[in-house]
Amino acid sequence: ISNNLSVSGTLSFTAGRVSLGSNTFTLGTAIATPGTLSYTGGGFINGTFTRWFGTAAVTVGNAAGRYPFISGTDDRSAFFGTSGAITGGTVSVNYTDAAGTTPVTSFLDSGSGIAKVSNANWAVSNSINLGASTAFFRLRGSNITSTSDFSAVRITSATGLFAGTSIPGTGS
Fold first, then answer.
1. Phi and psi, residue 69, nearest 5°
2. How far apart are CA 45 and CA 47, in angstroms?
3. CA angle, residues 29, 40, 66, in degrees to nearest 5
C-alpha cells in the first residue's frame, strides 16, 4: 500500500501478503468501535498495524489480539492480551522483516552465550492504561521452539516488569 489505511468494521485475512512499506494499517476507530479481525491465513509484510481495544480483557493467542505479520510463508504474528479490564486505547506493532542475523561482539551479560541476533524485529507502542491488569505479548517465529531461544530479549523502553518467557502448546 502507498498510504495509511483503516478499517472501521471487520478485517478479514484469509491468505496472501499485504506490503505496508512504511505505512500504518489501523483496525477500529475508537474505544467504543475497536473493529474485528477475522483471520485464517496470510499477513502484513513490514509496516505498522495499529488496533483499537475496548475496555474488556483480551485473551492472548486468538484473533482478538492478533497482529498478523508474515515472512515468506512463515507466520511472524504478534499477539497482545491482558489479564483483566483495561481503559481501552490503541496498541501498535511495527514488524521489520529483515533477513539474516548479526553477530554479537558484546552484550550486557558477557556470560550469555549469545553469538548472533535475528535482524527481523517487532516494535510495540501503546496508549492503553492497564490499571491493575497485566499485559501479555506472544511472538511467533518458526525457529522459536523452546525457552532457551529467548535467552535474551532486548527491551529498549518499558514500564513495568519483565516476567520471563514461556513457550505455549501447539495452539496459536
1. -120, 155
2. 7
3. 45
What confidence tens digit (pLDDT) does each residue in 6-29 have?
A: 999 999 999 999 999 999 999 999
pLDDT tens digits, one per residue of 111-134: 555 566 667 778 888 888 877 788
CB-CB contact of 36 with 13 (8 Å): no
In the structure grid, which three cell numbers stand for residue 111, read together? 556470560
Taking CB atoms within 8 Å and a gap of at least 24, the contacts of 94-102 are 94/47, 94/48, 94/122, 94/123, 94/124, 94/125, 95/44, 95/46, 95/47, 95/49, 95/67, 95/69, 95/120, 95/121, 95/122, 96/46, 96/120, 96/121, 96/122, 96/123, 97/45, 97/46, 97/69, 97/71
Q: How is residue 47 written as a grid cell?
A: 509496516
Question: ∠ CA 8-13-19 to the nearest 5 degrees?
Answer: 90
Q: Grid cell 473493529 — which residue?
A: 35
Q: Check residue 149 and give left, alpha or beta (phi > 0: left; psi -120 to 50: alpha).
A: alpha
